[in-house]
Amino acid sequence: MTDDRAPDVDPQDGVAESPHASEAAGGRAACRPRSVDPRELGFTPRKPVPWLAPFLLISTGIRTLLAMLFGAYLDKRELQNSLDAGIARQVGPDGGLWLDYVADLGDGFNATYSVAYLLAQPELEVDGHRLPRAQTLVMGGDQVYPSAAFEAYEDRCKGPYQAALPVTPPERPTLFAVPGNHDWYDGLTAFLRLFVRSRDRHFGGWETGQSRSYFAVELPAGWWLLGLDDQSGSYLDDPQLTYFDRVAERLGPDSRVILAVPAPTWVKAVDQPTAYDSVDYFIRTIVAPTGAQVRLLISGDLHHYARYAGPDRQLITCGGGGAYLYPTHELPERIEVPPRDTLARRASASHPYQLAGRYPDAARSRRYAWGIFPRLPLRNPGFTTLLGTLHTLLMLAMAGVATNPEGTEQRLFSVPLMAMLIVTMLGAAFFAKPPSSGGKRHARHWILGVGHGLAQVGLAAAGTWAWLALPFYDWPWPLPVAAAAVLYGPVSGLVASQLVAAYLLVAGAFGVNVNELFAGQGIEDAKSFLRLRIDPDGTLTIYPIAVDRVARDWQVNPDQSPESSWLTPKHPLRPRLAEPPTTLT
Length: 585
Prior knowledge:
This protein is α/β, with parallel strands linked by helices. It has helices at 38-41, 54-74, 109-120, 150-164, 189-195, 238-248, 265-268, 277-287, 362-370, 372-379, 381-403, 408-413, 417-432, 443-468, 479-509, 514-519, and strands at residues 88-89, 97-102, 123-126, 129-132, 136-139, 174-177, 202-203, 206-208, 215-218, 223-227, 256-261, 293-299, 305-309, 314-318, 334-337, 351-359, 527-534, 540-547, 554-556, 567-569, 576-577, 582-584. The protein has a nine-stranded mixed β-sheet with strand order 1-9-10-11-12-14-13-16-15, covered by helices on one side. Strands 2, 5, 6, 7, 8, 17, 18, 21 and 22 form a nine-stranded mixed β-sheet that branches. Strands 3-4 form a two-stranded antiparallel ribbon.
């Protein structure tokens, strides 16, 4: 902004100082925008990440590979031993506490800001329940996509939350964050600079409350919130265990624990029995000896809401903060935690857990799966272009073999057929189970991957037959190649994308490429977060809040008070409960 209202900006925080803020409310000053122009907002609202874009697939694969190869060298958790090891305390004015949980949030603006807007409102009325704004906000991981770059954090996470709650309200809400795998892609550098700070401890209108990438918060009536940094899949670091040893000294038989972890390893352990080992180790060695009970395990990572109920504990996944929807119809109806076939020694006794609630429901999730046919080419034009390029090269190679042209130029240009067949088959096999993904490669991965590759080769053969029936291939050189690029490429890419969509739908029914089936659609709707209430008597009530449809049109808020959100939806958001509230005592 270059007008007379242009404020001074802190380059570390990107928040403008203005005399319009209320210092009495404990808030920071922020210059309100007069339009939705990015120069007024101070950030650029982004579209959802196109997860099947070729360059993004390559870059994400490289980041994952680097994290696997060099993650231990980039791990900064040991270095955090030099930071303060404070234990926070959160209690509301009435002796109870309202607490929000949101995860997987830094994606497209419409979904991310819709959730942030609801979190920031002074009160929500949901299915007859009046739910005031929480005094504590927990971000459960993957605060940004696709990587932990500074620009991504500003545009996809911090900017939308700044717009939702520009300054700190009188109750001074506090923010705690658990790092997810996408936060770890830069070795946790950006995460620590945003959420673990010794000065200017604000994130929009929320005050940041942690001193490391993990935290402990004493809550009312004997409840505790423990946030675990367990993302790398390796052993828990010694400084973190030492920190929680100190926390454990304050726990007792009357203590009840909410444990926030980066991923729902209780579900992932169905296919990867060792996934739950570190969480089980933490509970068994840190919490259990004190006599305290872990009553609630909570995580994001899977982008839906799911609750498993057990004899003494609830296991909740709530990753609906903004990222693409992940299906619920593939969830197991019953799990054992820890799994009986875990490799961990001295594991805790296994207990059964039943799937008690999910959002969206299984029927709606299946309907979403069928949307892959129109959404795949629309959401991922780069992927469709890649398929069109591959099929054009396959067609030219097959046509060269079929016609055995005498023209030297066309013979030199023709692509070796065997090389293209190998590329196609390997690409399909790796797509079914990328080398960097977790879990074992089973026979179904090979069968479906090879079957998909053969189907693409069959499509290429049919396309070659159809192309040779047209007059373009007999045109003088280089017109056949130009015609193939202009005419054959787009059509074959679109047809091939529908073949990929059909493959994903079939593979998803066998538990293969389930993530790609939904990532390729980029579904923005069906978002969720949790609002929890701890009463002074110790009763914990969990309200799972669902948003069936996020807002897509925004306007500048006519309410110009400092605490009000900068932007409001043109059509009201209608939150509801994903299931009836769950009560723990």
